[in-house]
Specification:
Helix 3 (159-166) links the parallel strand 11 (134-136) and strand 12 (171-175). The chain has helices at 79-90, 106-121, 159-166, 183-192, 206-214, 230-237, 245-251, 268-278, 333-344, 348-355, 357-363, and strands at residues 3-15, 20-29, 32-38, 47-51, 56-59, 61-66, 68-69, 72-73, 94-99, 130-131, 134-136, 171-175, 196-199, 219-220, 256-259, 283-285, 298-302, 309-313, 317-320, 326-329, 380-383, 389-394, 397-398. It contains eleven helices and 23 strands. It is an alpha/beta fold.
């Protein structure tokens, strides 16, 4: 009789961190990968055989910057909203997720942290993507770089506020604009709590980025979106013109960043440029997706469903109500992968690395997930030849 705790994936091209393997096999036992490589015979007699049907066998995606999906935003602050969003993203291939805050009141952020902690404690694979931690993104943004977030929900960091969030023990990624008063203390506290530290929604100059780097900041959020430029710094700092976040990230080999590769936020040329400059080990794909993912075009709130900022979905991307700006993505990670393939023509293993192993490495969970290697969780995607997910396994359990 087949043993449901033993799975054998076969008849597909295996995507490894540095290569692809034709006609490959993965054997997983009790939700953990035991073998991944060229086909070998015979397979375990009691294994359940999973046929990849000539497509791809790839690692589950790891999304470190994501706000919601299927009508739910994590900032809605309910367990049901969390479960709706993580299941939605699992159907797009994300198997590990970091629910991400927006700007909002302290009470709204604490409700989000509490709901996510409950959902994490009660999680089973059928709920959707595994919650690895929370990305504390809003509210510590620069007032001139708030983007689609509510302006009245942003503020400068204070110890009393962010220590409450860090003491919840669910925050794993922590963002603060580097130029804000109190940013240095925020970074020190985040490092003390073991967070991956990022700078985002910021108009910081090189000197401010350099200081943030000394305190542990190693990443900037969604490159070219809501971040400083030479032009924006001339408005803020005058002349002589100053180097921005862009120059600091490109010049510093230790810095990583992320792109929203939905085909709407950045041109193919910019996506290709980011890949050429940072490479697959320092560039992450993120969705930054909103509640409008997998929903019909229409009007939605970004953030809490009671008072979040309104935006419009046109079926391809979120846009500000006046139509002059973008407002988050409405795409899953599978689309980010397909767009990066088109934009960069990079090797497929590099594309998948940016959506899985690289973010896992940056946040410190690569020993558990992010690639199909022995000893790691059996978070496995079967995709067709056009890179659309067909089946999703989380810890060896298939999402249905």
């Amino acid at each position: 009789m087949p043993n449901p705790s033993i799975l054998a994936f076969r008849n597909g091209k295996l995507v490894l961190p540095n290569s692809t393997v034709e006609d490959a096999v993965i054997i997983a036992r009790n939700g953990v990968i035991e073998y991944a490589g060229a086909a070998k015979a015979p397979l375990p007699k009691d294994a359940i055989v999973v046929d990849a049907r000539g497509g791809f066998i790839a690692p589950g995606f790891v999304d470190i910057h994501v706000h919601g999906g299927e009508g739910a935003d994590f900032m809605d602050g309910t367990v049901q909203a969390v479960r709706t969003a993580i299941r939605c993203h699992a159907m797009h291939g994300t198997t590990t997720i970091f629910p991400t805050t927006t700007t909002g009141t302290p009470e709204q952020i604490e409700a989000m942290l509490q709901a996510t902690a409950i959902a994490k404690a009660q999680w089973t694979p059928q709920h959707g993507a595994r919650i690895a931690g929370v990305h504390l993104y809003g509210p510590f943004f620069a007032p001139d770089k708030v983007g689609c977030h509510r302006l009245d929900g942003r503020r400068d960091p204070t110890r009393a506020e962010y220590n409450r969030y860090f003491n919840s023990k669910i925050v794993s990624v922590a963002t603060c604009a580097a130029e804000l008063p109190g940013a240095d203390a925020f970074y020190k506290a985040a490092r003390k709590h073991g967070c991956f530290i990022t700078c985002g929604h910021s108009n910081a100059n090189w000197t401010e980025m350099e200081r943030a780097f000394r305190y542990g900041m190693r990443h900037v959020d969604h490159f070219w979106c809501a971040m400083s430029s030479v032009v924006s710094l001339r408005t803020r700092c005058g002349t002589p013109m100053q180097a921005s976040m862009e120059q600091f990230v490109l010049a510093n080999i230790e810095m990583s960043t992320e792109v929203i590769a939905d085909g709407c936020h950045l041109s193919d040329e910019l996506l290709h440029f980011a890949f050429r400059m940072k490479g697959a080990s320092r560039l992450c794909l993120v969705t930054d997706s909103s509640r409008a993912l997998d929903m019909p075009p229409g009007r939605y709130r970004f953030g809490d469903n009671r008072d979040g900022e309104w935006f419009l979905s046109d079926g391809q991307v979120g846009r500000s109500i006046d139509g002059n700006g973008l407002a988050s993505s409405i795409a899953g990670m599978d689309r980010m992968v397909r767009v990066m393939v088109r934009a960069t023509k990079a090797p497929l293993h590099d594309i998948f690395r940016m959506a899985s192993l690289t973010p896992a490495e940056r946040v410190g969970i690569a020993s558990e997930c992010g690639s199909l290697e022995p000893g790691k969780r059996a978070d496995i995607l079967l995709l067709n030849k056009k890179l659309h997910p067909r089946r999703v396994f989380i810890g060896g359990v298939e999402m249905i």
